[in-house]
């Protein structure tokens, strides 16, 4: 972990707060709209730049799921994500950490394993309601 040398500007604080208060995993554009309520003169560029900095500092995480827009998450404890294949919404899944055997993986790939991502996809409750053909 890098030492916490993050300089908290007013904008950065507002962005971090907005992300900590939601579990909707917003896109940068959505974060911009959230922050603009508090700081009307904030620019989209500032929001993008601060999101990058907050990610680098480990204060938030960036989610790259499928070919959709980058999403941001203020939640930093270990959890997995599920994405709706219909509307693209992202939910959190809290499950016991999956214990992958690094040595086994390394011997199969010749890679030194440094991490993994495990994401799920499905159809969210809202979309399920909208498609009556789907059996529950
Ligand atoms: Zn959905
Ligand atoms: Zn999350």
Would you kindly provide a written description of the structure presented here, covering whatever features stand out?
Helix content is 35%, strand content 14%. The chain is an alpha+beta fold. The termini are far apart. The protein has five helices and five strands, in the order H-H-H-E-E-E-E-H-E-H. Helix 1 packs across helix 2 and helix 1 crosses helix 3 (44-56). The strands form two sheets. A three-stranded mixed β-sheet has the order 4-3-5, with no helix packed on it. The protein has a two-stranded antiparallel sheet with strand order 1-2. The protein is flat and about 50 Å long. It binds zinc ion (2 copies). The site of one zinc ion has 7 residues, from helix 5.
Defining traits:
flat; about 140 residues; two-stranded antiparallel sheet; alpha+beta; three-stranded mixed beta sheet; about 35% helix; binds zinc ion
- The number of helical elements comes to 5
Whole-number mean pLDDT: 86
Bound molecules: zinc ion
| Uncertain parts | none
| Structural class determined from secondary elements | alpha+beta
Helical content (DSSP H or I, runs of 4+): 25-40%
- N- to C-terminal distance: 44 Å
Tell me the strand percentage band: 5-15%
Read across the widest sheet, the strand sequence of neighbours is 4-3-5
Q: Quick one: overall form?
A: flat
Q: Which sequence of SSEs, written as H and E, runs from N to C?
A: HHHEEEEHEH
Radius of gyration: 18 Å
Largest sheet: 3 strands, mixed
Please tally the β strands and state the result: 5
């Amino acid at each position: 972990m890098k030492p916490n040398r993050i300089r908290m500007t007013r904008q950065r604080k507002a962005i971090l707060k907005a992300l900590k208060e939601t579990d909707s995993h917003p896109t940068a554009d959505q974060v911009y709209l959230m922050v603009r309520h508090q700081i009307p003169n904030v620019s989209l560029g500032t929001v993008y730049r601060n999101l990058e900095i907050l990610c680098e500092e480990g204060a938030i995480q960036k989610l790259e799921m499928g070919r959709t827009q980058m999403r941001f998450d203020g939640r930093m404890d270990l959890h997995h994500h599920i994405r709706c294949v219909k509307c693209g919404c992202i939910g959190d899944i809290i499950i016991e950490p999956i214990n992958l055997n690094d040595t086994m993986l390394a011997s199969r790939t010749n890679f030194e394993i440094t991490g993994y991502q495990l994401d799920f996809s499905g159809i969210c409750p809202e979309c399920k309601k909208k498609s009556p053909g789907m059996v529950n």
